[in-house]
Specification:
Layout (H helix, E strand, L loop, with lengths): L1 H14 L12 H8 L6 E7 L6 H11 L3 H19 L1 H12 L5 E5 L4 E7 H8 L2
Antiparallel strand pairs: 1-3, 2-3
Length: 131
């Protein structure tokens, strides 16, 4: 019963953090680099998705339940992986298509921070940020 209530609480917390954003922001430091780099030159960037697991709320919930370190680890890892799985699909599909067309060099998804490393020309980085 304790595990069921924990899973329901986590599901509720994650539902609030799954919004999808269109038209992302480019960090000002990265923008300076992009502005001074030729449009066809490849750069490597991290694209952070707006949906992030609410690890603070998970920690609070786990504290109140006196959860073991093992349970905490499993719960946080599962929440991070679920968030990435629920939010990265569309952009990964887009990036796969761009790579198949030779428009970007490579990409790699990370669940830990819900981000994707993209190696692509400056012009494509700016297009990706407009998603």
């Amino acid at each position: 019963m304790k595990n069921i209530s924990l899973m329901l609480a986590l599901a509720f917390l994650m539902m609030g953090a799954t919004s999808v954003a269109f038209g992302g922001e480019i960090d000002s430091g990265l923008m300076q680099i992009l502005d001074s780099t030729p449009p066809n030159q490849s750069v490597s960037v991290l694209v952070y998705l707006t949906g992030q697991a609410n690890t603070d709320a998970i920690t609070t919930q786990m504290d109140s339940q006196g959860a073991t370190l093992k349970d905490r680890h499993e719960t946080v890892v599962r929440a991070l992986q679920d968030m990435a799985g629920n939010t990265q699909g569309a952009i990964l599909n887009d990036l796969s298509a761009l790579k198949a067309q030779g428009q970007i060099k490579s990409f790699e998804a990370f669940w830990l921070a819900n981000c994707i490393r993209v190696d692509a020309p400056v012009s494509k980085i700016e297009e990706i940020a407009q998603r």
